[in-house]
User: What shape does this take?
Amino acid sequence: MNRNRVRNHKTHGAILVGVLWLVLILSLLLLGLNREVQLSSTESQGQLDAVRAHWVARAGIERALAVLSEDGSAYDGPLDFWYEDPESFKSISLAEGYILNVTAPPVENAPPGTPRYGLDDEASRINLSSASRNLLARIDALDASHISPILDWVDNNEEAEPGGAERGYYQRLNLPYEVRNGPMRTIREMMLIKDITPELFYAEDTDADGVLDRREDDGGTAMPADNNDGMLDRGLNGVFTVYSYETNKTLDDQDRINLKSTDAGTLTSRFSITQPLAERIADRGKQYNSVFDMVGEKGEGDGSDEEDKTNEITMKWLAENYEQFTLVDDDRLPGRVNINTAERRVLEAIPGLTPATVQSIIDKRATDGAFTSLGELLTAGTVSEEQFKESADYLTVRSNVLTVRSTGTTPLGIHRSIVAVIDRGGDTPSILYWWQSE
Assistant: This one.
C-alpha cells in the first residue's frame, strides 16, 4: 500500500516534470514566435516606409514638372524658379514627418557641400555626342588617348581615328560588346569607351549628385579615393552630357530664317534692312558656311533712299540678331552650352573664351542674374568681336533638358531617391532617363 503510494507519487512527479518541460518548450516556442512576429512586423513597417519614401520622392518629380510648366522665360538662368527655389524644393513637409528635397550641384562659389535646391541644367555641360576634337582637347582631364576613342564611339563609320577604337577592338574584349557609332543614349555609356574608367568618369563624386559629402572628403578613409582638399572633383560626369539640344527657333519661338533658302521678302519683313541688302543676302546665302559669313554684306548703293534702315551687316548687328538665323532646316540642333548656368571649367573649354573672359561672364551673371540673349556677350563688352565669332556656335541662353534629383525621407529616417531627366522642349514634357533607388 505504501509502496503503491510511493510509486504513484513518483509517477505523478515524473508527469509533473514532463509537463513543466513541455510548458518550458512551449514558452520558448511562443517567445520565438512572438519575436518572429515582431521582426516581421518591423520588416513590414520598414518595407511600408520605403514605399512611402518612394512616393514622397515621386512627388518631387511632379513638383518639378509643375514649376517647369509655369516657366515662360525666353532665356534660362539662375533667376528662374526651376534653377533655385527653396520654397518649392527644400525640406518640404508632405505629411507629418515625411520630407521632400530636390537638389542640384551648388551654385558658383558656394560651399561644395551645400546643395542648390532646384534642377540641374543639362545645357550647363558639353554635349559629348556632338563635341569636336578641338573642344575635347580643351578638357584638362582628357588626353589624346581618350579623345580618339570618344570620337570613334559617336561617329557613324568603322574607320578608327589614330589611337582610336572601332568595332574590332570592342569585339576582342573578354566580354565583347558593340560600339555605338551614333549619338549616346546615356552619359554613363561613356564608361564603355576605351580607356574611360569609372575613376576618370566619377572622380570623387561617386554618387553623381555634385555635392561634396563627408566620405568624398576624408582623404580616402572610405571610398571613393579623394584628396581631402575641401573641393569636389566631379570627373567627366560633371563636364559632359548627352541630352542637351537647341531648338531651331528664335527666343520668341519663331522659326529661324535659313540663310541658304530665304528670300528678300522674308528678310525685309522680319528686319529693318534695305531691299538691296536683303537681295544681296538672299542671293549669297546659299554659299554661306557660317552665319558669320553675313558680316560685311552691303546693299548696292548707299541705301540713301531707305536711310532709316540698315544697309550693311556689322558684327554688332549680327550679334543682336544672332538667334534669328540658321543654315539648316532641322527642328533640333546639337546641344550648346548655356552661358547662364555652366560652371567655370566648362566655359573655359569653349573655343574663344579665355579664363579672363570666363571670369567676366561669371561676374556679369552675379551682377545681372543672366544674359538675356547670346548677342549680349558682345554688346555688353564681355567678349571681343573675334571671340564672339569663335565661340557663339557653341553657346546658348536656353535650356530644354533638366535633371531632377528628388529624395523622400520618412519619420523612421528611410530615404528613397529618384533621378529623372526631363525634356521640356516639345509640346508636353517627356522623360529621357529614369533611375530610382531600391
The longest strand covers residues 401-409. Residues 65 and 229 are 37 Å apart (CA to CA).
